[in-house]
Amino acid sequence: MLELNNINAYYGESHILRNVSFTVEPGEVACLMGRNGVGKTTTLKAITGLLAVRSGKIMFDGSDVTKLSTDRRARRGLAYVPQGREIIPHLTVRENLQLGFWARPATAGSAVEKDAFDEVYQLFPKLTQILDRPGGVLSGGEQQQLAIGRALLSNPKLLLLDEPTEGIQPSIVDHIEDVIIRFKNSRRFAILLVEQGLHFAARLAEKYVVMAKGAVVAAGKSDELNAEMVRQHLTV
User: Fold this and answer.
1) Which of 64, 90, 105, 150 is deepest in the core (most CB within 10 A)?
2) Which of 17, 76, 77 is nearest to 45 (CA)?
3) Within this chain, do residues 66 and 3 fall inside the same structural domain, yes or no?
């Protein structure tokens, strides 16, 4: 599904990602972990094409996408929910969601559109109550639900979530966790989750990838995380 091979990326002349390599299999939930500033968000930007890589290769769904633009990667099935959510503030909730649906590679008419929106409304019922509100006036939890819903409407093969629980009330965190578990069980698409909190990640992910100083320092099954690794690289 996704394979990163020796990815190196820079901000100016600062070497940020150093030979980053890992895989995410179809239907798998993987967690990219590590403390602040180790390169997790930068890795997601490299995957989506928001940051050009200087060397290495990114394979997605059997094709080399290293040189493709961000929009072409999105149309191949990459959906990204960034840390800042990037809701369009002057557009309504309904209009923000519509942007996600328009990002699909192809649409098959009103029936498909209705089913897609109905699914999002079932996952996030709160959105049905605020469809005509501008995105900029929503709470952090409402914006996060909107951002995930918008990404789902693009019909992704891989969903990238950058710290989806940051700054959100516990009840919404629990709800987002339930949604991720639901998709994990369905195996409909893969999820790459960036998360610092060990407990949240351990409940959701099947695989972990730990980063430090721009490099991958450990990877494996989630139940293999050990105390020393947690002490050195992770937040409990």
Assistant:
1) 150
2) 17
3) yes
Which residue range is the domain that position 21 belongs to?
1-77+156-236
The 10s digit of each residue's pLDDT in 3-40 is 999 999 999 999 999 999 999 999 999 999 888 889 99
Closest CA to 26 of 77, 67, 70: 77
Q: Which residues pair with 11 in a beta bridge?
A: 14
Q: Is there a domain that residue 198 lies in?
A: yes
3-state secondary structure of 207: strand
163 three-state secondary structure: coil
Task: Look at residues 154, 182, 210 and tell me which one is the last residue of a structural domain.
Answer: 154
Distance CA 153, CA 147 (A): 10
pTM of the model: 0.90
Model confidence at 109, pLDDT cuts 50, 70, 90, reads low
- The pLDDT tens digits of the residues spanning 172-185 come to 888 988 998 888 88
Q: Which amino acid is at 76?
A: R
Q: State both tokens at 43.
A: 């890795």
Round to the nearest angstrom and report the end-to-end CA distance of the chain: 29
Nearest to 124 by CA among 101, 108, 148, 102: 148
Same domain, 12 and 100: no
Q: Are residues 137 and 192 in the same domain?
A: no
How many domains does the chain fold into?
A: 2
